Amino acid sequence: MDKTEQTLKIGISTGVVPTWKGDALVIGIYEGGEAQPALSLCGRKVEAEVRKRLTEKWLKGSLGESISFATPHNSGLLVSRIVLLGMGKKESLNAESFRALGGHIHALCDKSGIATCQVLLSLDLHHKPKTHRQRIPVVELLAEGAWLANYRFDQFKSKEAKEAKEAKEAKEERDEHPFKQLVLGVYGERAPQEKKRLQEVEALTRGVALARNLGNQPANRLNPETLAQTARQLAERLPGIKTTVYSEKMLARKGMNGILAVGGGSQTPPCLITMEYRHGGDRPLLAVVGKGITFDSGGISLKPGEGMGDMKFDMCGAAAVFGLLQVVAELDLPINLVGIVPAAENLPSSTAQRPGDIIKMAKGLFVEVINTDAEGRLILADALHHAASFKPAAMIDLATLTGACVVALGTQASGLMGNNDSLRRQLEKAGEASGDRVWSLPLFPEYQEQIKSTVADIKNTGGRDAGAITAACFLSRFVEATQPWAHIDIAGTAFDMNSSRPHMPKGAMGVGVRLLYRFIQAHWL
Ligand code: BES
Ligand code: MN
Ligand code: ZN
């Protein structure tokens, strides 16, 4: 689970192209057949071969498209192959397309058995196109994309099974990465000073890999207990982190009956995990809360069988908190951060909570449980209340909270709600910069009507309409109005079994880690 070391090496070269030895040289081609100016560094012979293929339209240049050919004899280059890679329309290049390009480079090298490759970057890529508002340099984006693409969840593919599969599917889906080294060749007078920042990107993508690994674990492997164990291991590995786990007994003492009720149906008891990282002196504290339902069957309000297996991903909010803490601690960032994870398994049994139950939450509010499948808000309510006791300057929760959010936004953006407009805008910007995009939904007070209960203070469902919003309304009742708070519904973005983006392999996406890292970078450092 903590196996997140990086097998792909990425470096920057500012040397001379002809002296670089490796398997392949990648040259970017814009849509329409225009080659990147760096082509001129490859010598006459190669340039002529490339131009010939471009005029004969062997490649359109759409994003991710590629052709390759053997390096011509006596070209003066020491690489075996030249790869032309489509970059898409020059005007529409943005941060995300550079990440995708990094992913495509990884995919094509992996597929064609290229172990070492160099990408030629021209300095014009450092001039911001008009539509390119993000400030992340292109070399960082390409590295991020390649490292994100280098992730694979294969710990349960035994060796024999791997070989049998490989024999059957030939080169279609390899279980090992032949691709080992990527060199980002930046040529020109103003060579960038970004070598150090690649280390940052590497740590960031390893944090994403940790979040993906946790998310992808099946529920027979990852339950509240093993999740707490993982938190303890994280603190052992990274001494900057202090982990505390509240067991059932402690939860009862604290009156956290929301967490207890949701976890009550499982043999594995629920818990509340706290991970503290304090390296920011007297700077303000950021609290990040992640939903940690290790399996969501719905409980007594059982879900239909189809697709229920996906509910092993119902702890992806928690996974993001783990990933973020790893990144922050590894980079030794001078900030104060507390990660809080309520963990429970939502199962039906004779000890499970029932529809109609009324529970007294840690904050003192009474909640009528209409539907035991609306469990995320119950555990988060207690966790948010607990988070406030740390007196944070801001609280952000991440949760695979509602199917309604998936209906509203699909897989391309997380739903963002909250009680503080400036915090929300900061997260929107971080979303745009990081690639973990978020989109705001309104939290008008009128929506609160939908969660009024006849027998208790509030109920845990608000009907079909505005389901993502009424879930956030519920959470808002456990946060003081003066406490800046944002809620991010990642139900649609946390996992994707049909992903076709090369830097986002199928399964858990590790969403939230890059979003919160860029948010911290912009506003907490
Ligand atoms: N974990 C689910 C939400 C979910 C759905 C996450 C799809 C990822 C993909 C959540 O606990 C849930 O069951 N929500 C219910 C709430 C309803 C009963 C008010 C839902 O959205 O249907
Ligand atoms: Mn549920
Ligand atoms: Zn759930």
Key terms:
alpha/beta; seven-stranded mixed β-sheet; 525 residues; 21 strands; binds zinc ion; 14 helices; nine-stranded mixed β-sheet; Leucine Aminopeptidase, subunit E, domain 1; binds ligand BES; Aminopeptidase; elongated; binds manganese (II) ion; 2 domains
Brief description of this entry?
This protein is 33% helix and 22% strand. The chain contains 14 helices and 21 strands.
Structure description:
- There is one protein chain.
- With 525 residues, the chain is an alpha/beta fold.
- It folds into two domains: 9-187, 3-Layer(aba) Sandwich (Leucine Aminopeptidase, subunit E, domain 1); 204-345 and 354-367 and 389-437 and 477-523, Zn peptidases (Aminopeptidase, 3-Layer(aba) Sandwich), CATH 3.40.630.
- It has 14 helices and 21 strands.
- Helix 2 (95-111) packs across helix 3 (138-149) and helix 3 (138-149) runs parallel beside helix 5.
- Mean pLDDT is 93; it is low at 129-134.
